[in-house]
Automatic annotation (TrEMBL), chains A, B:
Keyword Secreted included in the entry's annotation: no
Methyltransferase keyword on record: no
Protein's recorded name: cAMP-binding domain of CRP or a regulatory subunit of cAMP-dependent protein kinases
Cyclic nucleotide-binding domain mapped to chain residues: 24-116
Keywords for this protein: Kinase, Transferase
Amino acid sequence: MDKEPLRNYIQHNSPASRQIVETIAEYFEPCEFAKNDFFLKEGKVSTDYLFLTEGLMRAFSFDTEGNEVTTYFYPKNRMVFEAASFFTHANSAENIQAVTVCKGFTITFEKLNELFHSIPEFREFGRLMLVRGFVEFKQRTLALITKRAEERYKDLIKSNPEIFQYAQLKHIASYLGITDTSLSRLRKEFSKR
Amino acid sequence: MDKEPLRNYIQHNSPASRQIVETIAEYFEPCEFAKNDFFLKEGKVSTDYLFLTEGLMRAFSFDTEGNEVTTYFYPKNRMVFEAASFFTHANSAENIQAVTVCKGFTITFEKLNELFHSIPEFREFGRLMLVRGFVEFKQRTLALITKRAEERYKDLIKSNPEIFQYAQLKHIASYLGITDTSLSRLRKEFSKR
DNA sequence: CTCATTTCTTGCCATTTGATAAGTGCTTTT
DNA sequence: AAAAGCACTTATCAAATGGCAAGAAATGAG
């Protein structure tokens, strides 16, 4: 499988030279997921850091009443990891599952940490991945507070149309913070226009 | 001013030895804020990483209609920093302001980075601070989706009662994702019981 | 202390969203 | 092909929350 997308991604997000990026990429192993396979299961410790080259993944957990809530969608050409479990070795509160067939490259915590320790430029990459995830969550939280469901729906269609192509509507609904009934209403209104 | 709370905090959140912690703490400078002083202003690059020993701070930004939205409250004995701006040197989208008189210790990005590079154990600390902030935001986002305003209100009183002691209700309201009118109603219902 | 400003509360009504349940259509199983 | 299961839609009604405006209370300035 072609590691070029991975190398490009690292290159664009760290100050490392091309040669160092190539060395780093060597440590990643190819992997594949069938539709509905789990990359991470609730209650287990996350051991892998994944770069997704093909497909779509979804993170979800359960609220106090046992309802499934989609907490995130991971499009391709992005890193997929659950920071809390991966970096602190705590049991994960979340599941990460393949929505479609997925392909990518993984690296274990031990190897990644070795690289962070031996390659200062790569540490920047690790930090950036965390900061980015953080920023996205902040924006989402802000949108939940300040925007109407309709606007959040429009924003998601605009920013990640592929999600609507592959994910189930009830999963998208809980990601948007609404019920599937409400999402259905919104879709109806939009199809009228 | 007494640096002991800072040393304890670093000690509890990194694998560094006491001696190393003491060295690290030397790099932090004492600082104070009058009520309403800004630690960080929107549009500026955040240059400091702050450990708050006294007081309460608040992060806020504005939505598209120009309404102020409180995005976070920082209680004492915690690190205060805006990850996106501090670590990527981008202009901050947020403001961080002292709700009460505040005291603490700051370190600049350059010095902090020096420490991260020279003290591997301290890197764990930096990573943990990011991961923790991330986890908290995720939980808050989940609560916004799955819980009623009333429950979010109860949770906040339980976890951070000091916020209700010092912050304005309209700021707490926007943090909870409701209007000040609704918060007022909730308070009324609770005072009945 | 008094006045002005800001913050908070309250009442009224409108809107958004949720809960439930029935119905439609698609897919899978047997 | 019939039956069962699942995803999605739709209708109805109820509950939560917002918007607005007026008034009360607290705070700050002079």
